[in-house]
Fold this protein.
Amino acid sequence: MKDQNPVAPPHPAQDVTEHVGYRLKRSAAALRGAMDRALREHDLTVPQYACLELLDQRPGLSNAELARGAFVTRQSMNVVLRGLQDAGLISRPRTTDHGRALPAHLTPEGGSRLEAARSVVYAIERQMIEAVPERRLADLLADLDRMAAALGG
């Protein structure tokens, strides 16, 4: 049953496919699919790759910090970390002297795997941004940041 007083869309749109949120989700899904396929060749998942990138930039991050940075739950990050540790790509102490956080670090094998995977991920990003005129890229990135900030992210 249709509403008697329909809610007006936030901008002119004929259907849901013209909404900003839909288009952001479509772009994110396309990126995720391309990354899934490319990273499979390196025996990594997208969350595992994100975790390796974060640890390369900031060694010693905790499970909670990695989960926030990779946009997954802490429980999911536990599974990611266990998989990376079992594969010999990261190391974590069994215990810690302070608090409960177990800082994670890349192993040499983790650094090598990251470097190889990074090249395919960067190629995907390059392919994606080539669709945007170079003069507009900085504005697009700033707009995306402002949209995330507007929603508290």
